[in-house]
Amino acid sequence: MQSDKGVEADVISGRVWDEFCDTLKRAGQQILRPEAPTSALDRAEGFRYLSRLLRIGLEMHLEFADPDFPGFFLPSHETGKIGADNPDNHYLFARINGKHEYVICGERGSVSYLSIGTQKGGYETNGRMEPTGAIDSAQLQTDANGHFEIRLSQEKQPGNWLRIEPESNAVIVRQTFMDRAKEKPAQMRIARAGAEAKPAPLSAQRLQAGLGNASRFVEGTARLFADWSQSYLKHPNELPPADQALCQRVGGDPNIFYYHSYWELKPDEALLVHVKRIPDCRFWNLQVSNWWMESLDYRYYRISLNKHTAKADADGGVTIVIAHQDPGHANWLETAGHDRGTLCFRWVGASEHIHPTTRVVKQSALARELKA
Fold this sequence. Notes:
By secondary structure, the chain is α+β, with helices and mostly antiparallel strands. About 25% of the residues lie in helices and about 30% in strands.
């Protein structure tokens, strides 16, 4: 282990910065993998993806890395996306140390689904973010005004309690909207119980750890989800159930059942996704993503549908059309200039998991196929 004096010398000399830059340069190889698409759009998005991961990594491992003084930040959002980020979600993330206790205080709001979980691991180390505890809006106790307090500890406590383990190092919050324009998100803050009033000034040791972890986070995250995209090539334009245990190991919500796949469409083709019956569930959605498993730009394109926004078929099922041009169908999803990418379908709290079926049809035959 390097001594404090050695770390200080490496910061002063610039070696820490050089190592940080070297790791980022190496991360670029994940964009150049032989199976990855080579169009200018896909490559441009790939390298932009690394820059987005770096922004998130610096927040996670440098700016908000002190578990004695945690704060929530956005680990995925409109311009920073990881691993099939849900367009209907508002994510929050905070660093903790499982050996301590924490308190989350907030206001429930009216968002459709709210889940808060603790995790251990990291994409920069072992490629995992394994759940260590969870609580969601169905269990959350609030007062008459919607205020709540959650205690985070290893030992069970009365009221709202969120379990942590000695190795727990993060809190992840998912707020899922049916309709962002009408629902009010929860507001919350986190603090360590009994922490000192002010953090110490930045040290060379914290800078070295922060830059090192941030650059390894970029490389590790890019590699992890590039591996996932590669694995989907064996079932193009389908939506089979994902490996649920694997999804949980990388930070998935325990209430969610996931489907992931690869899609590729020629200019005159469309992909029909059909769910024959919608079971009792808290939420579901389907989203279109790029090869790097970033949701397409939902600020400007309609690339996802959910339980609230999709129009049901006459028989109670749902049919969704993914196509390059508008077919005049109520459940059309755009490809936003892409000819390939990835897909993600989710059931949240479903009484059963009705597997979607898919088929590729010619755009010219789409009306006939939909009628049939």
